[in-house]
Amino acid sequence: MQFKTLFGATVLALSLSACSTIEKVVYRIDVPQGNYLEAANVAQVKQGMSVQQVQYLLGTPVLIDPYSNLTWYYIFLQQRAYQTPEQYTFTVKFDQRGIVTETTLDKPLPEITAQNENNTIIERKGDATKKSWWKFW
Predict the structure, then answer these.
(1) Cα distances (Å, whole numbers) of residue 20 to 14, 16, 23, 95
(2) Is 31 within a domain?
(3) pTM, entire model
(4) 38, exposed or middle or buried, with CB in 10 Å at 0-12, 13-18, 19+?
């Protein structure tokens, strides 16, 4: 009788402790939320730019100050797998004419080293442009 109780308690203890080690085996995707901010685009925003130029570079802001409409907040939240989420806030302030007067970034953005596939320039080499499509032999 005592063996069954001891065996049951051991099985229960092992099964409960096994659940805590399985947590990081399950795959979790990276979840970006808000405005995707790149360091290259944020660096292009300068004082003297218009509202349209800022919106062309960074897109529509996540939050516009409801009281004055002159302050835009671009918020980027990145959570990678089991790491703690990182939040970046880029604030752009305009004057009454819609010209950028001040920009602030709460912490530096990570640099992206890989070139985007859409920006790759494809070059033709050789005399492939001289041949016609019907002369395949």
Answers:
(1) 11, 7, 6, 54
(2) yes
(3) 0.64
(4) middle
Q: Is 17 helix (H, G, I), strand (E, B) or coil?
A: helix
With pLDDT > 70 as the criterion, what percentage of the chain qualifies?
72
Pairing of β 100-105 and β 63-64:
unpaired
How do 100-105 and 86-94 pair as beta strands? antiparallel
Contact 45, 98 (CB under 8 A): no
Residue 100 has pLDDT above 80, yes or no: yes
- Would you say residue 21 has pLDDT above 80? no
Domain range for 92:
25-105
Q: Is residue 4 part of a domain?
A: no
Instruction: Domain count for the chain, please give it.
Output: 1
Q: What are the residues whose beta carbons fall under 8 Å from the beta carbon of 11, sequence distance 6 or more?
A: none
Question: Given a cut of 70, is residue 23 above it in pLDDT?
Answer: no
When pLDDT is averaged across residues 108-128 and rounded to a whole number, the result is 60
Residue 97 lies in a domain: yes
